[in-house]
Amino acid sequence: xxxxxxxxxxxxxxxxxxxxxxxxxxxxxxxxxxxxxxxxxxxxxxxxxxxxxxxxxxxxxxxxxxxxxxxxxxxxxxxxxxxxxxxxxxxxxxxxxxxxxxxxxxxxxxxxxxxxxxxxxxxxxxxxxxxxxxxxxxxxxxxxxxxxxxxxxxxxxxxxxxxxxxxxxxxxxxxxxxxxxxxxxxxxxxxxxxxxxxxxxxxxxxxxxxxxxxxxxxxxxxxxxxxxxxxxxxxxxxxxxxxxxxxxxxxxxxxxxxxxxxxxxxxxxxxxxxxxxxxxxxxxxxxxxxxxxxxxxxxxxxxxxxxxxxxxxxxxxxxxxxxxxxxxxxxxxxxxxxxxxxxxxxxxxxxxxxxxxxxxxxxxx
Length: 365
Hints:
The protein has helices at 15-26, 56-69, 79-95, 102-121, 163-167, 178-187, 191-194, 210-217, 221-225, and strands spanning 6-10, 30-37, 72-77, 126-128, 133-138, 141-146, 169-170, 228-231, 237-241, 264-269, 274-278, 284-295, 305-310, 318-324, 330-339, 346-351, 354-364. Among the domains are: 6-130 and 172-194, Rossmann fold (3-Layer(aba) Sandwich), CATH 3.40.50.620; 220-278, SH3 type barrels, CATH 2.30.30. Helix 1 (15-26) packs parallel to helix 2 (56-69) and helix 3 runs antiparallel to helix 4. 26% of the residues lie in helices and 30% in strands.
């Protein structure tokens, strides 16, 4: 038994998780690798070959590294729990006129749960992943902090991690840049891995055609929502569309022609199958309501607490005042104009580089 302890490493077959396993092994931990099978893309009827963390090639890449370094590797099938939770939420959010972020939901509700469950079964004290983020403690509370490489920082997608999850998690890549990680792989003889392209698609929609996925997933949806209307800010009908679930807040392309100036989707009204279009300035919002709040750095905050607030991944953020509401909701009032607040996306609140907490955007104000 290693003096450092036993760690379960989530291995997708990509460079980040592979180097994570290498670093944990070299640091003296007893490593157990695990690859999670979340989705069979062939079942979705898409046109693109299966790629990313669910592909056979990726699973084989993960297994090869474990064999090379002499530690155990397991494959677990979580397709049923993944599909029931993540995909059902993905579909229902679009049907509700919102824009979901399934990767965040999967991270916080499926993958960590699955990892901790298997870690306990395998007597692993810790789990490790290839996320670019740090875990720190303030006054006894765990919280996520931005990684050294701000270009790759993934703190935004980890707002949902609980105190228990963070207390047992290790992020070995926190203090490295992506080029440094690629060089580490090359230095250890994994030249092909060092050159491996990253995958940014949703794992169950690798062709990036979420509209096609919805149509296949919900038989009859296309016919049910056909014939919707575009309206302007005053409510005047200015065109027709294919159905409200196939549009997102801030969308400019794919709205059809005939408009004298560029138009953007500013609002989606599911009840009337209406999509509101406007100019760029019509996307500006002064605030939002956020639900499903998970607090990290502080157990609670005072009304009016100011925090840098991100409303999308790679957003620079804007200062806002936070007002906790009954239940798990937060009223957020921006101190500067914010464009394109999309219900369904995540809002994450920062104190410097530390994550105060986050939640899911319910509505804009």
